[in-house]
């Protein structure tokens, strides 16, 4: 065999090895596509968290400035009522049992003033 044939054979094997690595090895096309998919999923999750954070920051700012916002949270989340108000609970037939958070407040229930 001549020197040129040996050189071409070595270069051919080297090129074949590089192409195989490009197609199936680390950093291959499919590996890059999988990483890009993970990046897109993470960006979507980041966007959701940023929106949630923005809403919470607006809520905190409103609670710091507005007494009506505080009262609204006290009514909806803590079940508080004002003095003189009457609490009504509607139980639908489709509901098997009322949840404890929807139970009417006791006589010593906290009041929002």
UniProtKB/TrEMBL annotation:
The keyword Metal-binding does not apply. Keywords: Cell cycle, Cell division, Cell inner membrane, Cell membrane, Coiled coil, Membrane, Transmembrane, Transmembrane helix. Belongs to the FtsB family. It comes from Thiothrix nivea (strain ATCC 35100 / DSM 5205 / JP2). Essential cell division protein. May link together the upstream cell division proteins, which are predominantly cytoplasmic, with the downstream cell division proteins, which are predominantly periplasmic. Its main location: membrane. This is Cell division protein FtsB. Transmembrane segments: none annotated. The gene is ftsB.
């Amino acid at each position: 065999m001549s020197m040129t044939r040996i050189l071409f054979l070595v270069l051919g094997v080297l090129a074949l090895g590089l192409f195989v690595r490009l197609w199936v090895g680390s950093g291959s096309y499919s590996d890059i596509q999988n990483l890009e998919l993970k990046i897109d999923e993470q960006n979507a999750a980041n966007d959701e968290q940023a929106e949630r954070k923005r809403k919470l920051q607006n809520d905190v700012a409103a609670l710091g400035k507005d007494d009506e916002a505080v009262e609204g949270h006290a009514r909806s989340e803590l079940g508080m009522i004002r003095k003189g108000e009457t609490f009504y609970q509607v139980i639908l037939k489709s509901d098997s049992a009322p949840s404890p958070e929807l139970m009417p407040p006791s006589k010593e229930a906290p009041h929002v003033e």
